[in-house]
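Researcher: Going back to the complex we discussed earlier. I've cleaned up the inputs and rechecked each line, so this should be the final set. Can you rerun the prediction on the complete assembly and write out the structure?
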Amino acid sequence: MAVEKMSIAKALNESLRKALETDPKVLIMGEDVGKLGGVFRITDGLQKDFGEDRVIDTPLAESGIVGTAIGLALRGYRPVVEIQFDGFVFPAYDQIVTQLAKMHARSLGKIKLPVVVRIPYGGGIGAVEHHSESPEALFAHVAGLKVVSPSNASDAYWMMQQAVQSDDPIIFFEPKRRYWDKGELDTESIPGPLHKAAVARAGSDLTLVAYGPMVKVCLEAAAAAQEEGKSVEVLDLRSMSPIDFDAVQTSVEKTGRLVVVHEAPVFYGSGAEIAARITERCFYHLEAPVLRVGGYHAPYPPARLEDEYLPGLDRVLDAVDRSLAY
Amino acid sequence: MTVESTAARKPRRSSKRTSAKTPAKTPEGSGPQLVQLLTPEGERVEHPDFEIDLSAEELRGLYRDMVLTRRFDAEATALQRQGELGLWASLLGQEAAQIGSGRALRDDDYVFPTYREHGVAWCRGVDPTNLLGMFRGVNHGGWDPNTNNFHLYTIVIGSQTLHATGYAMGVAKDGADSAVIAYFGDGASSQGDVAEAFTFSAVYNAPVVFFCQNNQWAISEPTEKQTRVPLYQRAQGFGFPGIRVDGNDVLACLAVTRSALERARRGEGPTLVEAFTYRMGAHTTSDDPTKYRADEERAAWEAKDPILRLRTYLEKQELADAAFFTALEEESEALGKRVREAVRAMPEPDRLAIFDHAYADGNPLVDEERAQFAAYQASFAEEGN
Ligand SMILES: Cc1ncc(C[n+]2csc(CCOP(=O)(O)OP(=O)(O)O)c2C)c(N)n1
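Model: Rerun complete. Updated structure for the full complex:
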């Protein structure tokens, strides 16, 4: 056992280090990932230890980063690429959607593209435009991609290991405002499969489903609800594509109520997908309609308004109350 | 735990190729290919293709622009440190490139900036305090681009070069004789959008000037990580001229940009101007250049300081007296004070502003969410009462 307390950022760094050590075909690529160690320092020290051939500072060209990663993967490498911020993935969106997602199917399974695209995402850090977005639904909607997001240090470490080993392309969303949150990490025992949801807190009256940055808010909401005598279960989805609907169903069959929480706009968001599926699966168990809490159908606002835009404790608790009132 | 690699294939060649190492530095910014009219020592020199004849007043004007822009920039940096701004992208060292090119523009020309063109904004008459709203986090822009023909700052690297090209295509269609200028950095030259802008502008002969401030760095990556040929030479492959100018020489920047704009006006199409300059500060206030950059490099560029060089010239030629410099110092201080006070007095945005302007023609979903949001906010006010 090697249990340590570390931040999500450090856990990701350790995980990438381990991946580079374990498999000589693993490459790290991206803007500023070398000497600087990335703008969030997730790749700190890796170029120093593994060299410029394995930890590659790329030109400032996202389509180029993902497009060449596809080529490297075709040649047998396992690239882990960094997109500097959520809002800058779109120059690469073409390569991700039209090429990365589809080549396996087009080749009748002959081609495997073990590419991980790391994207620091979400708001809450007071940044300027294009630095706070939650575009996960845009990727989850695309068949051929898998989309995950850890919410704690242990998952950050292990999910990254699993993503690197996966033969499918993985869009790995890192909750940037949680980078500095510390948690316990056991680097020797794998917590579970990559796409399995986890019960972050057990409860019996209502289920909160969240992933990435919102798990913490939901845990706080559950703790606050507890003080009012309400027992709220928090399910950390961990994977947005595929979604572990069995785990959501199990929880909802127990509690009868479901609220889905994410930062991304509610409209056409992952909450809609979960609500629809769970309504199908748990129609007779539901005591209330599935509710969603998330961002609005408006551009991500300037930093001074992001606390209003992002779902906070109050908005989650409000939805909990509304659900319980049915 | 074992990791199975899919890379079981053997290399086709037995002799291992040496992998591509970082190429040698792109040619230094000197020599005949660099247009210079004022040396770092403050001496006027001639260039066969670019001449400039400015009055003493015009020269003092350029100096004033650079000094005030630097003062504004320093104030914004200080305000960020004091927690008044969330972020700041300093232009320190790039004053000549921005003022020289900015003063070459006519009022009816149109500017597409990045997020660092504070000096160009100054030349366009945009109130500098307007530039701070987005860095303070109260808005995403804060000025009407059509008031001064100065578009909103663009953060996504390279995007605006295509907008500039399209705008220029529109100018040409309208039969107008104004020109368009797009600013971007050396890092941006790697983006597909920029290559596409070059293609479109050449194919449609658009009256656009691409003004690349090669400040040697894209955050931590030196120019060699973006290109193996000097950037100005790229233009040739697209079918239009490229010129490298000493970006720390305000006179050369003015002359070269003027000539490129005139060329555009005459209907002769785009020009790429590479202003060879240096970012003296950090990329932004979030950046730590000590992680990737040697102190000596900055020191070497300090000797080429654009403001100092013009000052030396003004003093040697007795084009400005002590009273001018003292008055300018006072003006700088006043500007700093005005900016400081204006930032602190910026009103907090209204909460409902989240929903403002999401659509031009409105949208029922936005209206519904807005009403829900308002009711929700109001419920707190009631509780508080
Ligand atoms: C498409 C995109 N990718 C990444 C970024 C993050 N980023 C902001 S500035 C910058 C470096 C830009 O360098 P350069 O174009 O040389 O301009 P400079 O800032 O040096 O003036 C990067 C990578 C971005 N804003 N947009």
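Model: Worth noting: The pocket of thiamine diphosphate is lined by residues A 31, 60, 62, 84, 88, 91; B 116, 155-157, 184-188, 213, 215, 217-219, 279, 283 (CB under 6 Å).
Researcher: Good, that matches what I expected from the previous run.
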